[in-house]
Design brief:
InterPro entries: DUF2232. Keywords: Membrane, Transmembrane, Transmembrane helix. By secondary structure, this protein is mainly α. It is built from 12 helices and no strands. It has helices spanning 7-24, 34-45, 47-65, 67-89, 94-115, 120-124, 126-140, 147-193, 211-226, 228-264, 269-281, 283-299.
């Protein structure tokens, strides 16, 4: 007997998607809520109905907000939702699911870059750099800056922009991993609340990266440090991005340990989130968390294998 379609659930999915897409034009971070709804609903209702809902949302976005917005939403989230549904319904491991979905998310972003003609030459062009500096000058208030201060300000903006371009690959990889983990976790918890159980990631306090990955990354960093001159600027950029990924893994490990002990000692949930939020903004706290994550690779505070 064929399962009855939950039209109310699909309509809720449709309306929430429109709201998130509209608000997402002003607050882009809200798009993090977008894919988990579709993944959860696809497990419950089937991928065809859910993708039809996504297509309806995209067509409406195209009609009211323009084709660019519609193309971006469908290109980033369409393949992402499809691969998530496949990995969950075929009961693949958590690590394989996060790896596969992160790869698809990263690939979708790169496809958009190439489709819109965004490449290394464009990003490094004088026109782009001038546009960036003009934007920040207007933001700072061009009338408030003296000629000497303006020159220093422009130089700093250009310097920070070029540094950002260097770390862009690792930023995109980290964004892909975080998006996959959050989507997987929220979809799993949403389904659990509705009585459907799937294999899903552990909560933050029990999250642990395989020690081998971190050790291999550190060894690679050491090798590139010793042979940096041989590989030239390309090797230096690779090393900077690899270092960012290592720091990210250690930072997340440190956060997991902090969350584990805060939960164990009964710290209020609000206070836990407040302390975690502060660690995003206070550099000294970030360093402490990274050191804590590094020590966990040696001591294994939570005794997780």
């Amino acid at each position: 007997m064929e399962k009855e379609t939950d039209y109310k659930g699909l309509f809720r999915l449709f309306t929430r998607s429109i709201v998130i897409s509209t608000l997402g034009m002003i607050f882009p971070f809200l798009y993090i809520l977008f894919p988990s709804m579709y993944v959860a609903e696809s497990v419950k209702e089937g991928i065809i109905k859910v993708m039809a809902t996504l297509l309806a949302v995209v067509l409406l976005l195209g009609a009211f907000m323009g084709p660019v917005q519609a193309i971006v939403v469908f290109t980033i989230f369409g393949p992402f939702i499809l691969i998530f549904h496949y990995m969950i319904t075929t009961k693949r491991s958590v690590s394989m699911t996060i790896l596969a979905t992160s790869l698809i998310f990263f690939t979708s972003i790169m496809v958009l870059f190439f489709a819109f003609g965004i490449n290394s030459e464009v990003l490094n062009s004088k026109e782009t750099i001038n546009a960036i500096t003009e934007f920040y000058k207007n933001l700072a208030g061009e009338d408030l800056l003296s000629s000497g201060t303006m020159a220093i300000f422009t130089e700093n903006v250009e310097l920070y922009y070029k540094r950002f371009l260097q770390i862009l690959p690792s930023v995109l990889i980290i964004t892909s991993l975080v998006t996959s983990y959050i989507t997987y976790t929220w979809a799993g918890r949403s389904l659990l609340a509705r009585g459907v159980f799937i294999i899903q990631p552990s909560s933050l306090e029990f999250l642990k990266f395989p020690r081998e990955i971190i050790i291999l990354s550190l060894v690679s960093l050491a090798l590139f440090s010793l042979t940096g001159d041989y590989f030239g600027p390309t090797g230096q950029v690779f090393m900077i991005n690899l270092m960012n990924l290592v720091f990210f893994m250690l930072y997340v490990s440190g956060l997991a340990i902090a969350k584990f002990y805060m939960t164990r000692f009964g710290v209020k949930r609000f206070l836990q989130f407040l302390l975690i939020g502060l660690s995003f903004t206070i550099s000294s706290l970030q360093i402490f968390v990274i050191i804590l994550g590094g020590l966990d690779q040696i001591v294994n505070f939570r005794k997780i294998k």
